TrEMBL record:
One of the record's GO molecular function terms: FAD binding
Coiled coil: none
Name of the protein in its database record: nitric oxide dioxygenase
Lineage, uppermost ranks: Bacteria, Bacillati, Actinomycetota, Actinomycetes, Streptosporangiales
Gene3D superfamilies: Globins, Nucleotide-binding domain of ferredoxin-NADP reductase (FNR) module, Translation factors
Domain called Globin: residue spans: 1-141
InterPro entries to which the protein is assigned, alphabetical: FAD-bd_FR_type, FNR_nucleotide-bd, Globin, Globin-like_sf, Globin/Proto, OxRdtase_FAD/NAD-bd, Riboflavin_synthase-like_b-brl
Keywords attached to this entry: Heme, Iron, Metal-binding, NAD, Oxygen transport, Transport
Ranges for domain FAD-binding FR-type: 153-261
Biological process annotations from GO: cellular response to nitrosative stress; nitric oxide catabolic process
Keyword Heme in record: yes
Source domain of life: Bacteria
Reaction(s) this enzyme catalyzes, per UniProt: 2 nitric oxide + NADPH + 2 O2 = 2 nitrate + NADP(+) + H(+); 2 nitric oxide + NADH + 2 O2 = 2 nitrate + NAD(+) + H(+)
Length: 394
């Protein structure tokens, strides 16, 4: 909770700080990565730095956290914090790095606001920062403890043991720990970070949902991005084009807070494109546990040939007595429906909990349809691949 004095200052300065947050975060990243270029080698995603998505997501999270402190001082925005903390855990972010972030973030604030960055203003926003950082550090410490790690040991070498083409642009890779130790536990819907060394020698990490498992084996599914979509696809393209049995990559412990829930209430799994991957994992879990709960599986894609795990999903749905599915294909009549996903064509179960994954425009549109159908906002969850542009807003 903010002190009364700081709360008054933050409330008065929130409009101007929010107006300049994009500039502040741009200067923050420029300053920090300019003096610490090693952070781009394995930790920060340089594609998101180039596109500006990372700084916009950071700005949204800061503004969202500050707004919550003012509007709901007795509540903590756990959804926002959990999303960030899980991503940090998948990359091995540690407590000491928050001190580095603080230095360059407040340097960016001073450079941007100039004389408006009075000692009173800086002190108030310093309180906001450490409230947010302290909450994240606590959540991350708990997650590391649950994973049996310290934060400094989340990475292990894993060997590729199998490869299967899903679609022309999508491949599944089977992985096993190279050290022979047991694979870490995970919850269906979670992801791991995979780190690769690119042609220029820089290491980059990206997150991939776990789509299958068997003993020590874990499976990820990777979609290659075509020319014109780079540099965002530099890691996925390398893995899609080059990863072969025998290759070794550094893989993190599992993370992610969008997981299949316990209970017997209905769930709706909604995806588009490669967003089907956490849903495939949830279906596997439900099938393995003999679930009879109502499950509605909704997927949108360009066509059947571009639909990853299409046949596998059909088998899983067929093995679940309470499950039904619908597909929408924009360019084909081979699905259940043609065109964009339209919830008026399905019956949404009463009391359902909804899980979304896919491009942000898709999720935004479908989320609005669920809200119009009477699903409470708290019952709609989402997973996003890349910086979360909904933080503090959705």
């Amino acid at each position: 909770m903010l002190s009364e004095e700081s709360a008054a200052t933050v409330r008065a300065t929130l409009p101007v700080v929010s107006e300049h947050l994009d500039t502040i975060t741009a200067r923050f990243y420029d300053g920090m990565l300019g003096e610490h270029p090693e952070l781009l080698d394995g930790l920060f995603n340089r594609a998101n730095q180039a596109s500006g998505d990372q700084r916009r997501a950071l700005a949204a999270s800061i503004a969202g956290f500050a707004t919550t402190l003012l509007d709901n001082p007795d509540e903590r925005p756990d959804t926002l914090l959990s999303r960030i903390a899980h991503k940090h855990v998948s990359l091995g972010v540690t407590e000491d790095q928050y001190v580095i972030v603080h230095k360059y973030l407040f340097q960016g604030i001073a450079e941007t606001l100039g004389e408006a960055a009075t000692p009173e203003v800086v002190a108030a926003w310093d309180e906001v920062y450490w409230l947010m950082a302290g909450a994240l550090i606590a959540i991350e410490a708990r997650l590391y403890h649950e994973n049996g790690s310290t934060g400094h040991d989340v990475w292990r070498p894993w060997r590729v043991t199998g490869r299967a083409q899903q679609t022309p642009d999508t491949v599944s890779l089977d992985l096993e720990p190279q050290d022979g130790d047991a694979a870490p536990a995970f919850r269906a819907g979670q992801y791991v970070s995979v780190q690769v060394r690119l042609s220029d020698g820089v290491h980059q990490a990206r997150q991939y949902s776990l789509t299958g498992w068997d003993g020590r084996r874990r499976r990820i599914t990777v979609k290659r991005l075509r020319a014109g979509e780079t540099p965002a696809g530099e890691v996925s393209t390398l893995l899609h084009d080059s990863a072969s049995p025998g290759d070794t990559y550094m893989v993190s412990t599992p993370a992610g807070d969008v997981t299949v829930p316990d209970g017997d209430h209905p769930i709706v799994l909604v995806s588009a494109g490669i967003g089907c991957t956490p849903m495939v994992a949830m279906l596997h879990h439900l099938a393995e546990t003999g679930s009879t709960r109502p499950v509605l599986v909704l997927h949108a894609d360009h066509g059947p040939e571009e639909h990853p795990h299409r046949d596998e999903t059909a088998v899983l749905v067929g093995n679940l007595p309470g499950a039904t599915s619908h597909t929408w294909y924009e360019n084909s009549d081979d699905g259940d429906h043609r065109g964009l996903m339209d919830l008026s064509e399905v019956d949404v179960p009463e009391g359902a909990e909804v899980f979304l994954c896919g491009p942000l425009p898709f999720m935004s549109g479908v989320r609005s349809q669920f809200l119009d159908a009477g699903v409470p906002p708290r019952h709609i969850h989402y997973e996003v691949f890349g910086p979360d542009m909904w933080l503090g807003a959705a």
